[in-house]
Amino acid sequence: MDKGLIIVISAPSGTGKSSICRHLLKVYPEIEFSVSYTSRQPRPGEVNGKDYHFISRDDFKQRIGQDEFVEWVENYGNFYGTSTGAIERVLNDGKDLLLDIEPRGAKAIKNRFPDAVFVFVLPPSLDELLRRLEKRGHESPAAIKNRFAQAESELKEVLWYDYLIFNEELEAAIGQMMAIYKAEKCKISRLRGKIDCFFKSC
Questions:
Q1: Which CATH architecture has domain 6-195?
Q2: Using CA atoms, how far apart are residues 170 and 167, in angstroms rounded to an integer?
């Protein structure tokens, strides 16, 4: 059995990344979504094991010490991380995995899983990004300013990614993401098991 494919998607807040991910998961049910671990408390409506794996801060620190996370970060006093073991279990089952991770975490994934596919999503312009952040309406001007500053910093990481999608129109961006996934699934390097089986008449 060929191993599964890791797809890492990164984007600043307000870019439409979540909509693209939801559509990809809907169209391709064989793709699993990576559920991160966090030390923060669940928000209303969030489900443990679906939105996040909610664990205590002490538990998270213990897992860091045991090197259980391929990447982790502390934001606003809360820990967030991706389990190495969870990724490997999905891949060894021959399934594909979609990860929604910021660039620093994506780099850690690349170091550990160099065959993964990395996609960065951008809005048409920085002005449009700011407009989308302001349109959300549920954050303070200071929070929007912080998110915009973080986005500008993340843009410096674009050039090491494999693919770049400009989300000028959502349907077109979704189509590009689907095309990337389908093309990567047809790569010779990912089909060694099927090729060997073909010539051996499995």
A1: 3-Layer(aba) Sandwich (3.40)
A2: 6
